[in-house]
Amino acid sequence: MMVPFPSHVLRLYYLQMGWDEHNHYANLTRSSRAILDFAIPAQFGITISKAPLRQFSTSAALTAPSLRGSLAYLFIQPGIDIGQSGIENLKELGERFRVPPLPSRPVMNSGRGEYFLYGKMHLPTNRLDALYLHRLSPTVLLMSTLVSMPPSLASRAIPLPDHDPPPSSVSKVKGQIDTNLVLCLQQDRGRWSSEYSYSAADGLVGARFLHNLAISRKHAVPIRPRRIDEDVDSDVSDTALRGRFSLGAEVFFSAQEKSAGVSTGVRFSTLPDEPSQPPTVITATFNPIMGHISAAYGARASPDLALCSKFDFNIYSYDSNVTMGAEWWHRRRRMLRSASTTDKTGFVQSFWRAADQGEVIGCLKARASTTSDVALLWESRLHNCLIGFGVKADLTSRARPIKAVGLDLKFFSSD
């Protein structure tokens, strides 16, 4: 679904300071999650956000019929333009399938200190969420998250809704502890990145690493148009997927809880600017302690259609699950100039350039799994508001096949 307003501002903050959020192990499977793990609005919700200054924004949300709300404040340095919900590109306002960009070493875009401060109060529970980001150097980012709530409520330290938390931030606070502080240090050098986290509630220490393998010169050279007199066998190499591999792992340990965990993963993604092949992302992760193996394959079949499938298997219990999903973007079509069919490369490039022809007016996401879980989500724009409508069903339940139906409205403006 459309990302919450604080997450939208955080994305713009990352973009402005040149920080690649895809180049971290936490986002290794982000492309497949955008299609297979999208959230469905549980109730009717409305969110109104305003940015009177480039450095300051406010956001208020209300959910019915539970009558729960929240009030959030954001402060960003240097200031950014958040845009308007009525004119922003829908593709940039939600989670979607995309090929990760080529990794590059971050640079400091501003001579002054860059930081992001976010606070949110939940009503009537009085839960308080806080997030603080500070750019220590061009390649180092400090992240601090805080969750505070009444002692009667269960506590989980969770950053922004769509931001993958470090391993230590999902530990449950027990006893009388009602506040959890999580410190996370991220380092990005382009070819490799690392992340170190510490949870004060239970002393959980975690580390994540991601290494991007070098792209061979053969794969880096763009495909040239083939002459008619060239050997036809060269088509074999032209049709092979050209891309890059990324290897990563995570490990965490808590002496207080006497628990530990480890996982590893690999990702293959095609080159972002390769016109002759469909954008493709293939991932595989393995958790040896839990015995969980997951493999996902996602590709863009057409400029507006992306397909993805995932297979989960446990080597200890032999439980398995297959999930399939699709993402379709609806556009107002424009007339395209046809390319010569004798020029194969020109035809393919013209086909994929169609993705930029016409305004996006909606997105339909669907997923189904062997556990009989089916979900549909439609996202669009109603006047100047973003609207999301979703349905989640369980086909095995005759008494209650519809598990959730929700409608979500969002509006934000910088005027």
TrEMBL record:
It comes from the Eukaryota. It is a multi-pass membrane protein. GO terms for biological process: establishment of mitochondrion localization; mitochondrial outer membrane translocase complex assembly; mitochondrion-endoplasmic reticulum membrane tethering; phospholipid transport; protein insertion into mitochondrial outer membrane. GO terms for cellular component: ERMES complex; SAM complex. Keywords: Membrane, Mitochondrion, Mitochondrion outer membrane, Transmembrane, Transmembrane beta strand. It is found in: Mitochondrion outer membrane. It holds the Pfam family MDM10. Component of the ER-mitochondria encounter structure (ERMES) or MDM complex, composed of MMM1, MDM10, MDM12 and MDM34. Associates with the mitochondrial outer membrane sorting assembly machinery SAM(core) complex. Component of the ERMES/MDM complex, which serves as a molecular tether to connect the endoplasmic reticulum and mitochondria. Components of this complex are involved in the control of mitochondrial shape and protein biogenesis and may function in phospholipid exchange. MDM10 is involved in the late assembly steps of the general translocase of the mitochondrial outer membrane (TOM complex). Functions in the TOM40-specific route of the assembly of outer membrane beta-barrel proteins, including the association of TOM40 with the receptor TOM22 and small TOM proteins. Lacks alpha-helical transmembrane segments, suggesting that it resides in the membrane via beta-sheet conformations similar to those predicted for other outer membrane proteins and porin. Belongs to the MDM10 family. This is Mitochondrial distribution and morphology protein 10. It comes from Mixia osmundae (strain CBS 9802 / IAM 14324 / JCM 22182 / KY 12970). The lineage of its organism: Eukaryota, Fungi, Dikarya, Basidiomycota, Pucciniomycotina.
